[in-house]
FAD-binding PCMH-type domain-containing protein (Bionectria ochroleuca), 500 residues
Amino acid sequence: MLRPRRLLLFLASIVLAAQYAAGLVTPSLASAPRDGTTAADALYKKLNGDYLSTFNSELEPVLIFLPSTSADVAKFVKCVQPLVGLGLVYIAVRGGGQQPTPACNNVAQGVTVDLRNMAGITVNPTANSVTLETGVRWGTVYQILQPLGLGVAGGRSNTNGVGGLVLSGGLSFFSSREGFITDNVINFEVVLASGQVVTADPWTNADLYKAMRGGGNNFGIMTKVTMRTFQQGSLYGGSVFYPPQSFPSQVDAILSELNSPTTSETHLMVSVAYSKRFEAFGGTVGLNQVYYTAPTAEPPQILEPFTDVQPQFDVLDSMRNMTLIDAANELTTPNTNDQRVAYMNLHVKMGSATLKSASDIYLAGIKPLLDVQNITLSFTFQPHAVSLFEKTSNNDGNGLGLGPSNGPIMSVLLLAWWDNPGDDGLVLGTGKSILEQIRSEASARGTLIPFIYMDYAFNDQDVIGSYGSGNKKFLQTVSKRYDSRGLFQTGVPGGWKVLV
């Protein structure tokens, strides 16, 4: 006998199937496997196993819905809205599946809307824009744009999906010059809770347009986004590995670099990382991933403090002139579909004492984790220059609550990959303890910035609250206007909700 929720979802799938059999739309449906032997079971396992983190692939939706058009999505929303309204069905929306936070893009015993079949790309050279369906991945976008001599503010990994990064704010190789990824959005196509398909831009549904630029999955299902393109040739960049003892000197180099007039052309990630893969180098290494986005025949002087750090593990270094595709290839994480993945972050004002204290806290704090099976740990500083925040006012601003008066600031990011669910408590507890110590130290120094970046957040971090009370109230108002019954607040439980 089916349990009540499974029975209701089964009935919902019948309703959906009846609609599609009538010829209204022809998407695909994949139901939860029974004995693992049928083609449908194999499809389900393939789809549900394709997440960055096992935090999400271990969740088993009763139904995976694969729309091909925005009309499919609209009919789906209309179909399930009554059941969602009664609290009988829960939904998740998945683009690329690369956000590792538990349940943000998959749902146990519910329906997952998997947008991978919506992968259209349309370039408009006259309008300097590209329109992307939400299921496309950034690597595919770059393969289309690069031969045209064009770039776009998009993900730094080929496997990153378009939807999650755009809605969370998004960082790109060009952030110092172009702002957050979401600052480059010209318009959205979105399916509302009513099933209506609408456009949101600075002239039509302008409040929705602003809210979706950083507001996450709170307002509807984004089905298309039109982004600004720009002329872009090769980059200079790559990775430099070195002993961790030199990491403090790289903190000083960041502080100096941010005062350079050419900082808007740089993108910097300065890390200290631990992995058994680095045993030949002592287990813990310093890592600079640095890029200069303007054309240059010679290695740019502004990167020299990061590329010339000595000594280096030369065999691992990769600095060179490269294409955007090359850069995204290099930062594409090796297949971690069978690992746990967790990100946590906070932000601080620039200051040598705060940053060096944070790295000391981290290196001391991770010692209990070094024997966890197949663990990889990373602690990363990413500076956000004033030039980035100058773009946040584009088209009346975004939903993040940041502006030029906030910059420059430093993103402090903790990342972890590990194998066994039995280690979750230790790894997550240790990470949260380290982050809280860094937060307390920065707060005591007066250097803590409230902002938490959604795409790097764990699910218990108060992302929406970190945008500021006024901005949170604005997002709540927009949510109530376009989703008065709260479908995307209660019916889509994953992610960070505005009405909490």
Observations:
- Confidence is low (pLDDT under 50) at residues 20-26.
- The chain has 16 helices and 18 strands.
